[in-house]
């Protein structure tokens, strides 16, 4: 199978449609068809449910895959595919251009950018008011969404192919549970952030937090990156995530380090601060699902303290995040696997798509700046869909 075929999402074997695709770390993993669903439940029971699944189901590929929601108490959605295959993903750049063809989209921001900026200001007031509390609120990640309605069904394969042109991100697509508005919705995205991978006794997490827009002009792009590296506010926002990852993984590890310290990471449209954290597990049998449970949601998508931040998110965002800012990945029978943070993602349901983007709010954040950051984070998905922020095809603009 060529990589382009894999990325384009057209299943070739047995005529089974692709139910899962993950391209990251130079590899493509593909699930075709859906053999058995894993019993659904909250993340706290994930490791037990996955273990019980493999015991009870002797046939089929020895791997399950799917998505975890943002909210730890909500049910996840994992399944065993009919066919599982892997391939080298180094040459996995997409060939297809925009997926929108001549489709037109109407785009409705939900909430409107000005309402989001007001929510950031309200959040900053809560952070300031809590300064003297025993456990002050120090960080909250607030998100907003864009609701797209197209004249055509969204083409997930074309979207994946277009997203895969950026080799710095992990491209994913996974089935979501049926809902009233869609028999088979999909979560599709291109995330730069690894929640956790586990192979044998090796564990890796690569949290990101602290962001700046990229620019076509090289000088402006360099200044944007340098500004991010110097920013005390972004360093603080980032360190909160690194500390939380160390705290969550330490009990499981006999070694845990950040060998390269914090570095600048780039995607095609964003600069980020990132820290690669690597460890050796005390017990190589610790399943990846247990590590994901210990980590999720990190302060890269929720905040600190976690429960208090989640409460503020629920109050200020005004919608259910569903599987945005959860995780997408897989786990095998040995307990190995990898889970990516499901940011820069969209839920596709026929002619409707909902895109999400968030930004970390800490003391010193600026409501207009954070709103602009979410706009910049939408660029990757919108341009992969072949549309601008008004829903017009990009090709027309160039003509
Ligand atoms: C929550 C998102 O990004 C997170 C990951 C990287 C940088 C982030 C930031 O700088 O705010 C966010 O923590 C998102 O893209 O929706």
From TrEMBL:
Xref: Pfam families: Chorismate_bind (PF00425)
Domain of life: Bacteria
Entry-linked Gene3D superfamilies: Anthranilate synthase
GO MF terms held by the record: isochorismate synthase activity
Compositional bias of kind Basic and acidic residues: 214-236
Family: Belongs to the isochorismate synthase family.
Family matches, as NCBIfam families: isochor_syn (TIGR00543)
Identification of the protein by name: isochorismate synthase
Organism listed in the record: Aquamicrobium ahrensii
Lineage: Bacteria, Pseudomonadati, Pseudomonadota, Alphaproteobacteria, Hyphomicrobiales
